[in-house]
Amino acid sequence: xxASSASVSQEKMRLERDFYxxxxxxxxxxxxxxxxxxxxxxxxxxxGAQCGYLELLGPAEGVEQRWSLAxxxxxxxxxxxxxxxxxxxxxxxxxxxxxxxxxSAIQDPRFLERKSVQIAGIEAVLCVPIxxxxxxxxxxxxxxxxxxxxxxxxxxxxxxxxxxxxxLVDNLVLRSxxxxxxxxxxxxxxxxxAESLIGSSPALAALLRDLSLxxxxxxxxxxxxxSGSGKTRIARVIHESGPRANGAMVEVNCAALPEGLVESExxxxxxxxxxTATAPRAGKVAAAEGGTLLLDEISEMPLGAQSKLLQxxxxxxxxxxxxxxxxTADMRLIAATxxxxxxxxxxxxxxxxxxxxxVVLPIRVPSLAERRSDLPELARHFCAGAxxxxxxxxxxxxxxxxxxxxxxxxxxxxxxxxxxxxxGVIRAAGMGTSQVEQRHIFxxxxxxxxQAEDSVTFQEATRRFQAKLLLETLEETGWNVSEAARSLDxxxxxxxxxxxxxxxxxxx
Length: 508
What we know:
Blueprint: H1 3-26, H2 32-47, E1 49-56, E2 67-71, H3 75-82, H4 84-87, H5 89-96, E3 100-102, H6 115-120, E4 125-130, E5 137-144, H7 152-179, H8 186-189, H9 202-214, E6 221-224, H10 231-240, E7 249-253, H11 262-267, H12 284-287, E8 292-296, H13 303-315, E9 317-318, E10 327-328, E11 332-337, H14 341-346, H15 352-358, E12 362-364, H16 375-389, E13 396-397, H17 399-407, H18 413-431, E14 435-436, H19 438-441, H20 458-476, H21 481-488, H22 492-502
């Protein structure tokens, strides 16, 4: 063997050794996109190709991701290659599950009629399907650095590469799916018209699960939860997702009605039944015929009206004021309250028998404190809605604003959050800024500016207490964030967010 042949043989052995070594190195990658980029560059090098393209069509059942990557092609050429997935050389490999290896695609009888091949003047091509039952994707190599067709060794290396690529990508996709936050609400959303309920937290998922059970039934519902938590919105979801969706939904705030007019507002009145009833008056129960009646703050209903409501629930009939004959009602009742009705019963402010009628299927609406992971999505939704509602240019929330929103307490729940963001959008637009910043949402000292002690807001006092408690806990645990999170009963990710929001630094 001559020196030249020995040199070629040694170079071949080095290339093969490096190829296997780099395949092993690729197996420890943890991110899909960088992994594919390195993988494509590797196989182009060992196969002596000029350009390459890698397409993965979704390697695991139920996975919708699709990855593609080009190396050595211009943007226009990449688009031309991508078009072959359905009609060209790549389509041939995918449909047959076999390797396409040709010295000149423009002269190959299989591709003579393919316009994309003729226009591009494609010569040497090697296309290997990744897996074949069904194909997971394809590796496409075009052009050789040396003259002629791809060699048998090139083909074997490409096949080996594709064989190793499939399980590695499967593992990476599975890992990415496990790391990706899951939308806990997804299994229930298709059963409801719940587009207005923003978020994916477990607490919201539990609520949607209950709503999906109760919405289709012809039963009355009691909604409980803190003020501002969205009970009216939940009631509308029940109505729109149920059998009475085509009927009206009539809302009555019991606390807003004068005590002397509650019964006539609800049940209507005949002419002359009282001093202001100069003509027959239809009540809210009649207005909700065929639909849903929402009685918000039902705990504020006077005892006399409670008695008539109980009769309505028991008999489906009621008497308008001044009437001698009952009227049959056909409506669904949803009641809402933010207080403990059992305590109201003990205090003599609420009828126990009415409570029993209402609590057959009670649904508790979680507070915003129980849905902290929904805060960023809710905030962005309210920001976009405020811009549209006030016909302002589209503004985005800054990173600092989002971190502050996540760190803040929202005792007024969703209503307080929505109002604060709407005000922040208006301030930001008025100042001509391109983003809604922390100072726009928290204008009274919550932007980090010092305040006089006598003008500290409740929100600012709360933030100062949180920052002090967090710093003390971090120092007590030697800045072990995991231990501090356990001590404070917080998620570790939330502790990191609070550290950033409050600007806490070690040693300060």
